[in-house]
Write a structure and sequence with these properties.
By secondary structure, the chain is mostly beta strands. The protein folds into 3 domains: 290 residues, Glycosyl hydrolase domain, family 43 (Tachylectin-2, Chain A, 5 Propeller), CATH 2.115.10; 137 residues, Jelly Rolls (Sandwich); 83 residues, Sandwich (Immunoglobulin-like). It is built from 1 helix and 41 strands. The strands form 10 sheets. Strands 26, 27, 28, 29, 30, 31, 32 and 33 form an 8-stranded antiparallel β-sheet that branches. Strands 14-17-18-19-20 form a 5-stranded antiparallel β-sheet, with no helix packed on it. The radius of gyration is 25 Å and the shape is globular. The N and C termini lie far apart (93 Å).
Length: 577
């Protein structure tokens, strides 16, 4: 009898152990297939006060079928094989405290330069993973900011540069062996803020000073040269890239009809300027851009990836629609942005939030307001501080993005103990909790951790419990939840009116009839009825003023409605001349 009881006791213990394990087992996808902007990189803390993170002015190159990402003030450079997982490579050989690095691949060698006054040193390596670089020349004679190397199909090497609210973007051919200029630099483009609204400063292109024209990048496609440039300023939500086109690498360049080519003025995180365009290993084009926070400092920035296309007429466009929602990372050649969208909608906007504690001026609703420039903060950074979001009904949850904020941090540079530890849970009754992700033993830096679930779960409540933050308080810019609420997509937005300002044709005012079942709207517009490549996404309002048009061309507009269940495309297109 005692033996039977002992066996029963062992079986009960094993059952209990398995039950506990089943409650804590992570449901994170073993192989991530999607990503979400801002990219979850180990952004370095700046060396000067206030303590904050920064990465900007990116250059991406593909070397031996792998990806290398260089960005300002990163204390190293990043490496990836799939555009999803990134590791940092550190080196003492490069001037990594200089801004706006540029890198070019010539055959089996990678060359590096950064912004600096003359003379400038250029470096090279054939083993970028090693972190070892050699000097090519220490006497490059042009002092400049925001350099860009470009190698043409005929192996000729060109150099573009400029960052000024007065001077133009310039270009010059270089000797491919010595890297010294051949001839004199040529002025290629400058601002025209009177006619090009996207070049006007301000979050909403509503300020008067001259814009900063900067960040040149050249892409060659189908025999044409696409000279991209950034403006009006890195601290603005309107930070964008324009594009000019030419038949020759040094021009003359003509403004493309579709401008700005890269533009994301709203959303959880805005900005899509000072970028580099590259092709992945499958031949798809991507635009990796600077995105703005710019609260603690104007240079408080992040990076984002956007799919990029050239249509049948050679029109280049960067797709930024729903540009901070999850999207698929392709493993084959694609032809349209629709192939990348998994139809996971935003479930967490303005939903009720409960927290363990909160600091004055950092209230809990800031963790669900779709604005990276605001955040909720607990009173401490102690283990056990928590935040919970009520989705208000049981929803299908596919992914979660945890965006940490650097509140009261004391970190400068890179330190060995910069990482976050947490437990992410879900529930349908706010009582019984199951584990979504157990990262209580995590030792990696995940400031914008993105959790893709291998199998979607049904959940009403999402809870994040702090175990460790590297410094400061437990603070969240937004705890963003993606999936589907299980209802119907919104009805079509109706009664859209579009009125162009007759005194300033860069400005247009839109108004529509707001429907109760719509969370927000995405205005699509462009210079041709069949090329509505611009996207302007808003949550809530029934009107919008856009100040980023080209005053010299006509436009076409339509409006899509979206909610927690899907997107309903607009059917009517309005022309304004």
């Amino acid at each position: 009898m005692n033996q039977i009881l002992k066996k029963l006791f062992v079986l009960v213990c094993l059952s209990c152990t398995f039950a506990v394990y089943s409650q804590t087992k992570s449901v994170v996808a073993p192989k991530q297939t999607t990503m979400c902007n801002p990219v979850n990189l180990s952004y370095r803390f700046c060396l000067d006060a206030p303590s904050r993170r920064e990465a900007a002015d990116p250059t991406m190159v593909v070397f031996k079928n792998e990806y290398y990402l260089f960005a300002s003030k990163s204390g190293g450079y990043f490496h990836s094989t799939d555009l999803i997982r990134w590791n940092l490579i550190t080196t003492g050989d490069l001037p990594l405290e200089d801004y706006a690095p540029t890198v070019v691949v010539v055959k089996d060698t990678m060359y590096f330069m950064s912004s600096k006054g003359a003379p400038i040193t250029i470096f090279k390596t054939s083993e970028p993973k090693s972190g070892r670089w050699k000097v090519v020349t220490s006497a490059f004679p042009i002092g400049m900011i925001d350099p860009d190397f470009f190698v043409d199909d005929d192996a000729k090497l060109y150099f573009y540069y400029g960052c000024s609210n007065v001077n133009p973007i310039q270009g010059v051919e270089l000797d491919a062996k010595t890297f010294h200029p051949i001839g004199k630099p040529v002025a290629l483009l400058n601002n025209d803020k009177k006619n090009y609204g996207w070049e006007r400063p301000g979050d909403y292109n509503d300020k008067q000073p001259n814009p900063w024209i900067e960040g040149a990048w050249v892409t060659k496609h189908a025999g044409k040269y696409y000279l991209q440039y950034a403006g009006p300023g890195t601290e603005y939500k309107s930070y964008a890239d324009g594009v000019y086109v030419s038949e020759k690498p040094l021009g003359p360049f003509k403004l493309a009809e579709h401008n700005p080519v890269s533009y994301k003025p709203e959303g959880f995180i805005a900005g899509a300027g000072h970028s580099s365009t590259f092709q992945d290993k499958y031949g798809n084009y991507w635009h990796v851009s600077t995105m703005t926070i710019s609260q603690k400092h104007m240079f408080e920035r992040r990076l984002g990836f956007f799919p990029t296309f050239f249509d049948k007429d050679g029109v280049m466009y960067v797709y930024t629609g729903f540009g901070d929602f999850p999207y698929k990372v392709p493993t084959k050649k694609i032809s349209s942005p629709e192939e990348l969208f998994p139809q996971w909608m935003l479930l967490s906007y303005n939903k009720p939030v409960q927290v363990s504690s909160e600091l004055p001026n950092y209230p809990k609703h800031y963790a669900a307001n779709e604005d990276i420039r605001t955040f909720w903060s607990a009173k401490t950074g102690n283990k056990g501080e928590w935040i919970s979001i009520d989705l208000q009904k049981s929803c299908t949850v596919n992914a979660i993005q945890i965006n940490y904020a650097e509140n009261d941090t004391k970190i400068f540079g890179r330190e060995p103990n910069i990482y976050y530890q947490y437990l992410l849970q879900y529930s349908n009754d706010n009582k019984t909790w199951k584990t979504l992700a157990n990262k209580t033993l995590n030792k990696t830096d995940v400031p914008h951790d993105y959790i893709e679930l291998k199998v979607p779960v049904k959940a009403r409540y999402i809870k994040l419990i702090n175990y460790k933050v590297p410094s400061g308080t437990f603070a969240i810019a937004d705890l963003r939840v993606f999936g589907n609420a299980g209802g119907k997509a919104p009805v079509i937005a109706e009664k859209l009116t579009v009125e162009r300002d007759q005194n300033d044709r860069c400005i247009v005012k839109l108004k529509w009839e707001k429907k109760a079942d719509a969370l927000g709207y995405n205005i699509r517009y462009g210079a041709s009825k069949d090329k509505l490549y611009h996207n302007y996404q808003v949550i809530g309002p029934d009107s919008l003023t856009i100040r980023s048009l080209n005053s010299l061309q006509k436009y076409y507009f339509t409006i899509d409605a979206f909610n927690e269940n899907g997107i309903t495309k607009g059917k009517n297109t309005i022309e304004i001349n």
